[in-house]
Fold this protein.
Amino acid sequence: AQHGIEEITRRLAENDVGRDRWARLLVETSKRTEDPVRVAAAWAMQFDAGREEFVARLTELVASDDSVLVRRNAACSLAKSGRAESRPVLRSMLDSFTVTAADSGVVSAIVAVEMPIREQAPVARLRWDDGSESDVIAPVPGRVLKRLVADGARVSPGDGVVVLGPDGRHALNAAAALAIVGTAEDVELLNLAAAPRSEFGPEVKAAAQRAVEAIRARGK
């Protein structure tokens, strides 16, 4: 399915014949249960921004998909069509993210502060009362800013475990999208990202500054 999405993405980007057929297939594929498939499908829809069925499906994904990555990709794609429903998700991509526990248990291991974390990577290990173990998984990438629990602490579902700083690639995509749909309410957040002392790299800072300029130009 993911290879098929890659092919459809290429054909949409090249304005290939049969776009209506590929679009229908892409919408259907975006309803599959596998998170990575929906992540790829949500990203691919930006290559025919404004298509009615894409806008409808992306709006659904942004609002209610269980996967944070799906919601983020859908928000970036939806912004390409000029729809502002994606703004809350885009703003979250420029901010820290708290990874929470899905199970109850005692923390038997936890990652160190400053550790870079990939999406779907473990940040802690929990030991259940019956002796079995499970991992706490980070749904998004980032760098560990803070540990909210210590080794030996007992956690329940929904309890925060670590705080991740925003990922540079995600922040770059968010800034580019906010340049299209951002409002005056987003300027302060973008200015923080563009500030000289910001934790982001030069590319993200430049994109955030361009977004601020685009928002102010629309205001004029």
